[in-house]
Sequence to fold (250 residues):
Amino acid sequence: MLIRFRCDPALLGHIPPPVPARAALPDWLRDMPARAASELHGGPVRTVKTCPPFVDAMAHGFVIPLPCDVTVAGGRLSWNWDLPEPALPSHPRSPLSFHAPAQVEGSPFHRADCAMVKFNSFWTVELEPGWSLFATHPANREDLPFRLLTGLVDADRFTAVGILFPAQWKDPGFSGVLPRGTPVAQCFPVPRTPLALDVGPLDAAGCDAFEATAHALLSAPGTYRRRHRARRGRSGVAGEVAPQGGEVEP
Fold:
């Protein structure tokens, strides 16, 4: 799957590019222990750091990075960004703007104490024909002070301008700096092929496989990783793009 990203000619080299999600895993995932004491179990248990589905979800697709540091203090968001003048007059210059709260009235995102922000995009995204872009909050990133609204964009047809990413600023008491490169959205291509759902009971072979697999999962840790998890290739980025951060292998 080739994904093309393009930016304003005057901004190339001044804004961070999208990166594979695997290259943007958070420090807390690397730093957390693989095992922790559990009063419920009376001994140590494995943490989500060793759970392949948990980590694979965080490493799937690519992320759109925040293009500059954003300072949050006293309910105000500000930035000091030495950005060149874009070549395109209609191109945004601020990393984010705001949505009117009424746009989410009647939904769980409408709260009197939470603003609705909009992360501006500095990259266009072009997918192969027949594919759409699923954009959502970075997986398992509850540490971020915002919550992105999930969207699906037909990015094989909508390719001329960048995709905007609306979000609820869920932590009105947050104070600090969101650093340049913070994942704003996690994205991955999905096919627009209609689904055919086949629903029914397990046959005899399926029942045997169920029992054998359940027994293996309960008797030996790491069964899913060793027997069922597909090996994932590394996402490549054309051009001189260095991944940010490291990675976690469960």
